[in-house]
Design goal:
The chain is of the alpha/beta class and 452 residues long. The protein folds into 2 domains: 309 residues, Zn peptidases (Aminopeptidase, 3-Layer(aba) Sandwich); 111 residues, Glucose Oxidase, domain 1. α2 packs across α6 and α6 packs across α11. It is elongated, with a radius of gyration of 23 Å.
């Protein structure tokens, strides 16, 4: 852990005309007036327009569609060419759920795309079904019962599917690590499915194994309808050097949210990306920049998977790096991540060099829970940047008053400088062979942390 970052430190550092470090990269870290073009108040104002409960940006609903229009309008104001990639989606919104065990309420979370129940809910005895694999149901009669299943090995969707085949009317999946379980089935499920914490799941298992008869009632008020989402794509073309052979640097952020104001997750990343795009729009760069605002992230990284899956092998190979911003307004530690902890990523290494130069407090780790994962899946080097931790994540308290303008300023300047300096290099690194996973042939399941 680095020293806590002083509020004025970033401004003072960027005030230097040029800063060179002992780095292995071809171009030393350079700063100029472009960093000063990042306006934290303008970022904050974008968040204010996007983050409100009445205009919730839930995937497939009107709020998400209006947000896409807002993004496209602002990109065009910056003189950036805009394209939209529209795709069908099943809209999903939970209006509340409840679990009672022997009459006592127990905390639970509905899985995205779980079917709902009527107002009375469903009631049945709890039966343990291991990891929910086909073999875990052999010799068991779950007709009319609620299956208790541990997280692990197979997807959440497969677990509830196997339980439904065995006659279960509902499924409770409990975590295999500490904390609550908030995941997605990835596609509409067969029976109502709720997630439990490891502690609550193990407590229920102990009762079941003691031969006690336990009855549960599950309720879920769910709204699902055929709809659409879209990716909003802005392109900033290279303007110097051999532009015909220019590589592309992608900067991304998802703009959809859950049914909350969703200020930090992820109006903060969306708004910061709008400001970064504005700052870079007039730069004379050697490499192309593509800014992508992804839809349908919250239901399983669908927008980014759709985008990557639409590319030819040649187009994938032309993308030199992907930088992702998700939840950049709350927290006192910067996160730098790849999807796989063992991934080779020159852009993550380079981002770390910048972070160290500016003495940000940071942690380097891995996560598959945002849109960078879709790019790394096909061998594209990624850097996922955020601030953490956020105690208001996926809650009605994820409001604009929690957002730190200082965090927005630091992230905006960092990503702008990192991207600009890479885009000025005459030659960018290509994905290493150890990263590539059969370009053009990869299928796109929801990344593991969300679906398993």
């Amino acid at each position: 852990m680095q020293n806590r970052f002083l509020r004025s430190g970033f401004v003072l550092t960027l005030g230097l005309g040029m800063l060179c470090t002992t780095t292995a990269f071809a171009t030393p870290i350079q700063t100029n007036q472009i960093a000063d073009e990042i306006n934290k108040d303008r970022i904050y104002n974008h968040i204010a327009k996007l983050a409100n409960k009445d205009n919730a940006r839930v995937t497939g609903f009107d709020g998400e569609h209006r947000a896409a229009d807002y993004i496209a309008k602002n990109l065009k104001k910056s003189g950036i060419k805009v394209d939209r990639q529209r795709f069908p989606i099943m809209s999903y919104m939970s209006h509340g759920s409840e679990l009672k065990v022997d009459g006592n309420k127990m905390e639970s979370q509905p899985f995205t795309y779980t079917p709902g129940t009527d107002k009375k809910g469903i009631t049945g005895k709890i039966a343990f079904a291991g990891l929910g694999r086909a073999e875990d149901f052999q010799g068991k009669n779950l007709t009319g019962k609620i299956a208790l299943i541990q997280r692990g090995e197979i997807t959440f969707y497969e677990k509830q599917q196997q339980a439904a085949k065995a006659g279960a009317i509902g499924v409770l999946i409990y975590n295999n690590v500490d904390g609550s379980l908030n995941g997605t089935l990835g596609t509409p499920g067969d029976v109502p499915t709720l997630g439990l914490s490891k502690a609550d799941g193990e407590a229920l298992l102990a009762k079941v194994q003691s031969k006690k008869s336990i009855t549960a009632t599950m309720k879920a008020d769910i709204e699902m309808n055929p709809s659409y989402s879209q990716n909003v794509i802005g392109t900033i073309k290279a303007k110097q050097g051999n532009t015909a052979k220019a590589k592309t640097i992608v900067i991304g952020a998802h703009y959809d949210g859950v049914d909350t104001p969703a200020a930090n997750d992820n109006a903060s990343g969306t708004s910061t990306l709008l400001e970064v795009a504005k700052a870079l729009s007039d730069e004379k760069l050697r490499q192309n920049i593509r800014v992508i605002f992804f839809g349908a992230e919250e239901v399983g990284l669908v927008g980014s998977a759709r985008y990557v899956n639409s590319l030819s092998a040649e187009e994938k190979g032309n993308i030199a790096a992907m930088i992702n911003m998700d939840m950049v307004g709350v927290g006192d530690t910067m996160g730098l991540m790849t999807a796989d902890p063992n991934a080779t990523s020159f852009v993550a290494d380079k981002a770390e060099d910048y972070i160290k130069t500016y003495n940000f407090p940071y942690e380097r780790s891995s996560s598959t829970r945002s849109d960078h994962a879709s790019f790394e899946e096909v061998g594209i080097p990624v850097a996922f940047l955020n601030w953490h931790s956020d105690p208001y994540y996926h809650s009605d308290q994820d409001t604009i008053d929690k957002i730190s303008k200082g965090n927005l300023d630091k992230m905006g300047k960092l990503v702008t400088l990192l991207t600009r300096n890479m885009a000025l290099e005459k030659k960018l690194a290509s994905p290493g062979k150890e990263n590539v996973k059969t370009l053009g042939k990869t299928k796109f399941p929801v990344p593991g942390e969300m679906r398993k």
